[in-house]
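Retro notes, item 3 of 5
We never archived the inputs for the iron/sulfur cluster complex last cycle. Fixing that now. Sequence and ligand:
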Amino acid sequence: MCWVCEKYGNGEKWYLNPENYARRLYKVRKEGREASGADADPQAAGMGAGVVAELVKARISGDLKWEEEIKRDALEHAYQTHFGQVVTLDEYLQILDIAYPLVKMTCGCRRVQRGMPDEENFTCMGIGPGMYKWERWPETYRGGVEFLTPEEAKQWAMMNHKEGRVQTVDVFGTPYIGGLCQCEYPGCVAVRNRLDYDFKFLLKGHTVAKVDREKCTGCKSCLGRCQFKSLNLEVYTNKAYVDMDQCFGCGLCITACPSGAIELLDRESLPGLAENW
Amino acid sequence: MIAQIKINFDLCKDPLLCRQCLSVCPSVVFVCGPTKIWKGRETDPQEYRIFGRYLDKCSGCGDCVKVCPTGAVDLGFLPKEQLAQRYQEERIAQLKERNS
Ligand code: SF4
Ligand code: SF4
Ligand code: SF4
Ligand code: SF4
Ligand code: SF4
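Structure as it came back at the time:
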């Protein structure tokens, strides 16, 4: 279990704990924000825009201590307000039975990084009581929202998984979970900043993929599925190779394997990776 | 060398509608975001601004300059050591201020 589970899981994985979707928390968040005078919407605030500009500077200057300090300060804040974690499709579908209402909305990251037009950009899901008030902050929900039934949401989630998007839960005022994302590298700011700058705004998931080298036929169907640069073909042995240290446990590679040669293991069951979030 | 990108906001007026540089950049160097967020309405397109953000990732391919229909992208390069020194000085000033 990661630190978020320890704090907010109530013995479960934190994002499967219904308390973290409760209206009560949404209210707490609102008051907290208004009290602190933060009038901007949570999504824009959470993108860490200024932080990345600083990080790039620190990188160029080669000052590692500076870089670490920027990350430490930014994460201290982020872990209290807005961060995410990778989940598997199974977990995602379970969440769709807990959270309500469910709305399809446009993805802020792809707008920011690629200028994706709204019509082509409905890859985010807003959840919970806050959605009834989306019209208060139309910029956050630019392009509008579309309310879905849990059944429709599940179909949509499975379609996204099939197409190859990583699924994550997103916190808006810890531990209130207000969003479910379908992300990718480099279009997703969170994935990009994690991979390119090791900025741990996005946490790895509770599972890790492992290749069964006996079963793998080297068919290459899984290649191209990984958004975390963790999967390639070992050409000399003609087997898929998962960098387990780098794997985020999204499970996208597994769905593509016709031979059942990749397994999702519990991170906890691997002593060498159990604390690697 | 590290890219230095300046966008002329008098020429680039509606980046979300245009988005040519965002879309073409092979290294996703640009970000485009609202400078203001209002209660009750979407941000006007004129309040969106585009920036070169991931400057350490820019290859210098020049595609952004080529596609920009208004000539708003100014792409230059500085030696990495020169920039590193500038930022190190900024950092020293920052630490000094903090400790004063
Ligand atoms: S986290 Fe993913 S889905 Fe959410 S806004 Fe970013 S890229 Fe889009
Ligand atoms: S190796 Fe597989 S499970 Fe791990 S991050 Fe890549 S696609 Fe996801
Ligand atoms: S899809 Fe399965 S069998 Fe094919 S290369 Fe990947 S792991 Fe091996
Ligand atoms: S020069 Fe090439 S890599 Fe650099 S910002 Fe322009 S398009 Fe992107
Ligand atoms: S291509 Fe030029 S005008 Fe178009 S968004 Fe980019 S900078 Fe602005």
